[in-house]
Amino acid sequence: MPTRSSVAVDTVLEELIVGDIPLFIHPGWADRFPWLLQGTTGALPPEEPFDLALFGDHASSGVIERWDRIADASGFLRVVHSRQLHGCHVHVHGEGPPGFELAPPGDGHATRAPGVLLAVTVADCVPVFVVDPSRRAVALLHVGWRGAAAGVLERGLEVLRDQMASRIDEVHMHLGPAICESCYEVGAEVFEALDLPTPGERDDLDLRSVLVARARTAGVERDRISVSGHCTRCAGSPFFSHRRGDPQRQAAFLGVRP
Hints:
Number of strands: 16
Strand order of the largest sheet: 1-15-12-10-11-8-6
CATH class: Alpha Beta
Distance between the termini: 34 Å
CATH topology: CNF1/YfiH-like putative cysteine hydrolases
Shape: globular
Order of helices and strands: EEEHEHEEEEEEEHHEEHEHEE
Number of helices: 6
Radius of gyration: 17 Å
Structural class: alpha/beta
Low-confidence stretches: 1-5
CATH architecture: 4-Layer Sandwich
Number of domains: 1
Helix content: 10-25%
CATH superfamily: CNF1/YfiH-like putative cysteine hydrolases
Largest sheet: 7 strands, mixed
């Protein structure tokens, strides 16, 4: 079920592209940046879930075949991913051999190399897409509350600025499908970790609003930020949700087309 973020930025409802993989894309970016591939996979019907979880006890037997389908359908020869730790390490990728690369553990990836498809897996956490159109540099971040507290969003922007000469006030940022405030009740320790006013015990948290505020503080222009209208947990969601009890994961992808 679509939801609307409380933040004062554009809300975008991703469009499902019908093809070999269930990919939800930002329609405005698809029109504005034709050289870019961006999107988040969906769950598909329960009898054939498009699960991309590579780690954990519930990794499905067909997961490698589904990752291969991503590469074939996207036209990218190289796909990079990592085991995610809810930290702030961001890998920088240049040109490399074709195939699927499992980089060392981390929660973000950045590149200027055409043909390198960045990937993170999510199921309530926020996939954060960052694009510098002038330099055709991109970063993709996996952000839960622990990663937000660790500064992975700020670190991703620093990598673009320091290693790819990006101007932070020129980048575009989209916060993809994730759990909404109404579905995300957390304890006081989460608010404390994020330097937010602390409730008595538990309260609802709009993590995407927190990330928008942090992006604005880091220098990203408000009119260059958008937030997905999808909640991963709300009834009728086309995505997996950890809080709903799903062991599966969808993947977010971002790359400069070869």
